[in-house]
# Entry
Amino acid sequence: MESSNNRIARLPVPRIGKAGCVECKYLTPRIFLSGFGPFGNVRRNPSGMLVRALARDPQVRRWIAGVKVLPVEFDRCFRALRPALRKSSPDALVCFGLNTTLRGIAIEMVARNRNLLRGRAGKVVRKTIIRNAPAMLPTRLPVRSMARSLRRAGYRCAYSRDAGGYVCNNLFFHVMHRLGTKGMPCGFIHIPAIGGKGWTRAGLVGAGRRIVRAVAESSLERKA
# Structure
């Protein structure tokens, strides 16, 4: 795993001409990040920590349009995100969430139009998130670039086709239905817990840098 002190190569920096105008064919990508706050026995959710750390990180902060730590509640999570997105008008959105069973980063490939709730006597009840919407919607993040960058740096990562039936998938589906279908690059990443499976805070931030950079490079390719 790469050291947290290793610097990632910078993307082209705009030059300012005599008239003060930007003389660079690249536009700086604006990427919004979301994480979650505490829930249950998780008092410090590492996904919320991660997005705040990336917003301050000197290697990637120039690409961060904003961050939002969301409540761990069905539907309300997306309602809390929408005003921040309207205000920042980002080019891309990356949502992070915690999965304590993971050994590495899980790049979620598909959002599913269902919540799995606990009913009476512990019975699982399936509930549609958005009526008359597709059963599944694919991510719009540059998943191959992200996975390649993470693996080259020594981070464990894998593709996942099931983001679960809890709030993470709920947010993921809302995002893909409201934004992904309109062309915005967006998606969901599950991260492991700090202290488990060998992951540290520095390790998660290092992996987060790789993810942000991959999304930024993809945005530049589309704008070139």
